[in-house]
């Protein structure tokens, strides 16, 4: 299977046209160097609107797609798109080395929760530039968990939730390729009819999908600037909306859903097998997230929102995402 993945990714790289390769490279370089995606108008100015739109149609949303944020439109690469750039092979090797390092650390200490840039740089002998590149790759690949902080110089990331599923071995490039190409056909070409796996792909309402994706990005962003309360409130809203949507899709909407506390929705999801019975999700602040909107109520209930509570809220969302996605039949991506 891994050999197939190697062949598929190399085949995709060979089939790129000069325009496609140039557009992917420009999009990646803008993000890599500035930490933000390239505005649509900038990319279209560089290559021409017709050329950009044609390439996007040929490559598909599994490689490059549009997004809207703060009324500005951008183009973003998926992690697969990054691997198709001229820096793709270097990125594979760098991320494989990082995953191997984390897996070994986890084997020695199963309670490992965090790794920092300084220890990773020392272990992998990284220059500042390659450490910054790894920072960007970790963000895009989603091989990080909990509440991670991506500073400009130093970064700290939570150990991936599925760290125990990372194979032990000297070279994890095959694992990375297999992971990212699982939704591709045998010829290694994107299947347009297959829905790309975004975080909330199992939500049927497209408008709700978009809103949840925006709130999820914001929750992670405010955590990085120590916005513990805002992070918990956003995560609570995301969890509530996800649970209500999935329960409704299965015809199990609770009575008066708008009045149901989050803990009741979690219990309903456990009862119906949407969440596993043994999953512990809700910290004290997340249980009472609605009351955080009103400072007086929060003070009266003595709700203290700390970094630990914010980390717990982020982990709760990731756990729900993983469990809800795992029970769906949609293709992996």
Characterization of this structure:
The protein has 333 residues and is mainly alpha-helical. The protein has three domains: 2-81, Arc Repressor Mutant, subunit A (Orthogonal Bundle); 88-180, Phenylalanyl-tRNA Synthetase, Chain B, domain 1; 206-326, Up-down Bundle (Four Helix Bundle (Hemerythrin (Met), subunit A)). The chain has helices at residues 2-15, 18-34, 40-47, 49-59, 79-83, 88-108, 117-124, 128-141, 173-180, 206-224, 228-249, 262-271, 284-287, 295-300, 307-326, and strands spanning 38-39, 64-69, 72-77, 114-116, 145-150, 155-158. It has a three-stranded antiparallel sheet. The protein has a three-stranded antiparallel sheet with strand order 4-6-5. Strand 2 and strand 3 (72-77) form a beta hairpin. Helix 1 (2-15) packs across helix 9 and helix 11 (228-249) packs across helix 12. The model is unreliable at 1-6, 183-197 and 329-333 (pLDDT under 50).
Helix content: 55-70%
Average pLDDT reading: 80
Question: Number of helix segments?
Answer: 15
Structural class of the secondary elements?
mainly alpha
Taken in chain order, the helices and strands follow as HHEHHEEHHEHHEEHHHHHHH
Strand fraction: 5-15%
Radius of gyration: 21 Å
What CATH calls the topology of the largest domain is Four Helix Bundle (Hemerythrin (Met), subunit A)
The CATH level-2 architecture of the largest domain is identified as: Up-down Bundle
Largest sheet: 3 strands, antiparallel
- Cα(first) to Cα(last) distance is 16 Å
Q: What general outline do the C-alpha atoms trace?
A: globular
- With strands numbered from the N-terminus, the spatial order across the biggest sheet is 1-3-2
Number of separate strands = 6
Please give the domain count: 3
CATH class of the largest domain: Mainly Alpha
Unreliable stretches (pLDDT < 50, length at least 5) are 1-6, 183-197, 329-333
């Amino acid at each position: 299977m891994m050999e197939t993945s190697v062949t598929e990714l190399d085949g995709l790289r060979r089939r790129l046209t000069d325009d496609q390769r140039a557009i992917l490279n420009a999009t990646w370089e803008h993000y890599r160097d500035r930490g933000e995606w390239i505005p649509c108008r900038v990319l279209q100015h560089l290559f021409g609107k017709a050329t950009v739109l044609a390439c996007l149609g040929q490559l598909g949303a599994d490689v490059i797609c549009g997004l809207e944020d703060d009324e500005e439109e951008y183009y973003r690469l998926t992690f697969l798109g990054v691997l198709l750039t001229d820096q793709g092979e270097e990125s594979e090797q760098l991320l494989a080395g990082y995953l191997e390092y984390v897996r070994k650390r986890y084997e020695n200490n199963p309670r490992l929760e965090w790794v920092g840039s300084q220890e990773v740089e020392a272990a992998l002998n990284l220059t500042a530039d390659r450490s910054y590149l790894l920072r960007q790759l970790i963000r895009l690949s989603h091989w990080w968990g909990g509440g991670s902080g991506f500073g400009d110089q130093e970064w700290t990331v939570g150990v991936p939730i599925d760290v125990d599923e990372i194979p032990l071995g000297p070279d994890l490039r095959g694992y990375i390729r297999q992971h990212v190409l699982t939704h591709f056909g045998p010829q290694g070409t994107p299947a347009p009819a297959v829905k790309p796996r975004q975080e909330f792909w199992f939500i049927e309402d497209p408008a709700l999908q978009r809103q949840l994706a925006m709130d999820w990005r914001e929750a992670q962003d405010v955590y990085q600037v120590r916005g513990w309360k805002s992070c918990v409130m956003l995560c609570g809203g995301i969890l509530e909306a996800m649970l209500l949507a999935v329960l409704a899709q299965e015809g199990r909407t609770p009575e008066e859903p708008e009045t149901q506390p989050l803990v009741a929705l979690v219990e309903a999801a456990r009862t119906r097998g949407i969440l596993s019975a043994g999953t512990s999700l809700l910290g004290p602040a997340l249980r009472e997230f609605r009351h955080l909107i009103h400072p007086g109520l929060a003070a009266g209930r003595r709700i203290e929102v700390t970094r630990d509570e914010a980390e717990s809220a982020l982990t709760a969302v990731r756990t729900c995402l993983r469990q809800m996605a795992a029970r769906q039949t949609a293709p992996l991506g």
